[in-house]
Amino acid sequence: MPKGNDGGQVSGTPITGRTAGEIAASVRAHVDSGTLAPGAPLPPVRHLAEVLGVNRNTVVSAYRQLVQAGVAQTRGRAGTTVAERRESAEEGFARDTVLRDVGHGNPAPRLLPDLAAGLAAASRPPTLYGEPVIDPELAEWATRWLAVDQPRDFRLTVTHGAVDAVERLLAQALTQGDAVALEDPCFLASIHTVRLAGYRTVPVPIDDEGMTVVGLRAALRAGVRAIVCTPRAHNPTGTSLSAARAAALRAVLAEHPYVLVIEDDHFSRLATTGYHSIIGPGQERWALVRSVSKFLGPDLRLAFVASDPGTGGRLAARISPGTTWVSHLLQRLARTLLLDPEAGRQVASAAAHYAERNAAFVAALAEHGVGARAGDGLNVWVDVQDEATRVARRLMQRGWLARSGDDFGLVAGGRAARHLRLTVHDLDEDGAAALVADVAAAVAAADTPHPPERTP
User: Fold this and answer.
1) Residue 78: CB partners within 8 Å, gap ≥ 6?
2) 32, 199, 332, 455: which has the fewest Cβ within 10 Å?
3) Mean pLDDT (the chain, rounded)
4) How many other C-beta atoms can be found within 10 angstroms of the C-beta atom of residue 223?
5) Other beta carbons within 10 Å of 149
6) Per-residue pLDDT for 1 more than 60?
7) Cα distance between residue 361 and residue 378, in whole Å
8) Residues 6 or more apart whose Cβ sits within 8 Å of residue 422
9) Which of 228, 223, 200, 225 is nearest to 69 (CA)?
10) pLDDT by residue (tens digit) across 387-412?
11) What is the pLDDT of residue 6?
12) Domains, in order of start, for the chain
């Protein structure tokens, strides 16, 4: 592991630059090339500022960018070091575990429409290079659906799912080092997308009504060039924007018309709450993203994007009819299911099931004195009033694998760290009752004073 520094160097590795962005880019280049290994200390701020002939605030800003991008980490008086590489948390079922997984975040397979009926219709006629990238009938249906909630001129794009849409939208508007506002806590894929692309994350807290006005104002003052917002069924908390909060956020954004606003309405047709948009009439750069993953199935990699014509044009240029269009097999399959009345009834039934099962679980927890939020979505957000990782370990001892809120938090030790995200909609009555009892016991254990350790 490299130790010490000489001038603007770490073990002979020169750090250069005159601006915060240039200094951060120099460090990133050395990290990417491997000349700066995980754990390597970066020069003290004052020392590097003197060597480079810049204000120390410039170096502070550079180091802050590196920390926000996950490239570096601060260790208090021990200084700033290159971040240790670690496995990123992912959605989905855990691998190689005998525990009962209630942290997976999946829809219930039995509630998804049967794909078999649509497969035969999807296979003909074959699609060749150069043909339109969007199936005409699917485009007509999607345009009508999106126009209900965004009744303005927009361009329709079809992408390989919502994560692909957000990644491409950010890429056509930003460069490495640009700041992006994300909700805190935040959907895992959004965290990964922003950090892997080298953007700076600016956390915006959420409360019972969604993204906070104070938090959004602070993010805009910090110079964010894009905002990713979940208007309803926020993952992990289940929060949905209220009409009043959405209006207040639109008023703030009215002063920033050229900031790109992306709404990820991932739950769309399953949502039991209304859609309230933060995209105001004067917003020049915006996009509404709706995938079919939650109600038709995660493996149907398809999302619809309605966006302003300029953003839509740049996004479409990245989805070429010659190489990167979304498979017409998937598009036709999605079209068949979206137009099928029986599939529509199944989706409505699934929406009612998720809402009912989550609400019943939260009510049962309340009887044991444990606070939780059902909100909207596939999960419940449980306040364990303790370090969630400790409670999760207690649940493991009882046979359950839970998801700690730490995975979703953008601020270390923030409010998310005392929560668990549980997926309970697929538990039967006995399973749900057992989990409620075990969660209550695990939370109660936090209130039990631990005996002092004996000294030899």
Assistant:
1) none
2) 455
3) 89
4) 11
5) 18
6) no
7) 12
8) 102, 103, 361, 379, 380, 382, 402, 403, 435, 439
9) 200
10) 999 999 999 999 999 999 999 998 87
11) 41
12) 9-82 (1.10.10.10), 100-105+343-447 (3.90.1150.10), 126-339 (3.40.640.10)
DSSP helix/strand/coil, 91: coil
Q: Give residue 87's pLDDT.
A: 58
Q: Which two tokens stand for residue 311?
A: 């953003």
Residue 441 to residues 214, 357, 365, 389, 450, Cα–Cα distance (Å): 37, 21, 11, 15, 15
Tokens 């209006």 correspond to what residue?
247
Residues in the chain: 456
- Burial class from Cβ neighbours inside 10 Å (0-12, 13-18, 19+) for residue 98 reads exposed
* DSSP E strands, 124-232: 155-159, 179-184, 200-207, 210-211, 226-229
User: What secondary structure, in 3-state letters, does 205-257 show?
Assistant: EEECCEECHHHHHHHHHCCCCEEEECCCCCCCCCCCCCHHHHHHHHHHHCCCC
| DSSP 8-state class, residue 407 | G
Does the pLDDT value for residue 46 go beyond 60? yes
Both tokens of 246, joined, read 């959405």
Six-digit token string for 397: 């001892």
